[in-house]
Amino acid sequence: MRELTDRWLPARLRFVTVALPEREVRFATATAAAFNSLGMLLELMILRNSSIPWWPEAISSGVGALIFLAILTGRLQGRVNAVKALFVLNAIAVSFALFEIYSFYPFADHDGLLFQATKLGAVVAGLLAPGFLVGLMAIGVHIGSSVIQFSFFLPDFRASGLGDEPWAMFAFGLAGVFVLVHRMRVRQLQVEAQFALTEAESIRRLAHAFLDLRDQMNTPVQSVEIAAALLKKSGTDMEVVKHLQQSCARLREIAESLRRHEDRLEWSASQDGVAVIVSESHAGPKGETT
Amino acid sequence: MGASLTVVDDNESFRFLLGLLLKEELGVECLTLASLADATAQSPAVLGSDVVILDVNLGPNQPDGIAVYDWMRVNGYGGIVLFMTGHAVGSPYVQRAVQTGVRVVEKPASTDEIVRVVRELMFGGRAVECGS
User: Fold this and answer.
1) Which of A80, A139, A177, A194 has the greatest count of CB atoms below 10 A from its CB?
2) Longest dimension (CA), chain B
3) Which residues of A touch B18 (CB under 8 A)?
4) What's the rounded Cα separation, in Å, for the pair A30 and A99?
5) If you average pLDDT over residues B31-38, what whole number do you get?
């Protein structure tokens, strides 16, 4: 799928399909789940003296804890897409809890600032998302649910202290997206640089291998050259000897022209030329870091 | 009395043909050997040679031509050494040979050049002598 999209995506936009290593995906999702679990407990503390119910925070915190434990115990080893889905599920749980909490604000005796947790969630999603599309989804869930909720608030309530909304929410959503784009773009550049290094190393090894094979051929060629000279002395068919010596001269020219290129290579420990060429021919296709 | 010329190279065909060529062109008898072990087994003949032609790479997991050269020096060889190698000048093998100060001929060389160089070393217009 990624190869398909990479074909029509301009090179600068390929960060959209950058695949993070599984360890990073698991760590990012576990971190987001832990933040949800602990953050919602803090929210409970903030709202402890209000009439806003505690169950939305408890549900979200519980979801976060379950996701964190599932990753910690290794249950989802090797299932990267499932872990990414849990990142989005975590964001949905947080958004659901906040949606419920905010719905009580117009009636509750609490003068806290509305939608602050939503904005924080959008930026954190950009910072932690284990993939670009997953991150976009999480940011969209956070900002989208709150913008929709805001639109349903009564005008009087919206006018009282929410004059900057929903634009402030969009600004934080945009910040989350920019952070996400930056992270993924940097990652893409790292992958491309690593690939270029690997390819250069592979080419260098092949070049060394070919030169090594060339060197191994030189002694047999020398033997043929000497044999041709001895045949000439012994009076063998001169036409045959002439062609033999011409071929030897041509082989010497080729060896000499190869020598002119060897200065570009740094010599390291000698490797068996045939073994290197065989190993390079068995190498897999181009890959990104996984 | 030792052979006039000793050739140490792990390639049997090359040893045989080079020995034959030099005998035909220069009239010298050649002792041909494959390794340091062979050289030490016939040390009187080797150390008594006027010229010793050494391949630089004497095969995998074998002491190389530099090791043979060092052995000859340690045992007081006072004749002339010539390295012949199929490896590139930039390779570590050849660089070590060049650092000894001994003349190095790269294979494949024309037979005329080989004969000319060996004649020069044996009969006049010396290159670097062993131990200098």
Assistant:
1) A139
2) 39
3) 226
4) 23
5) 95
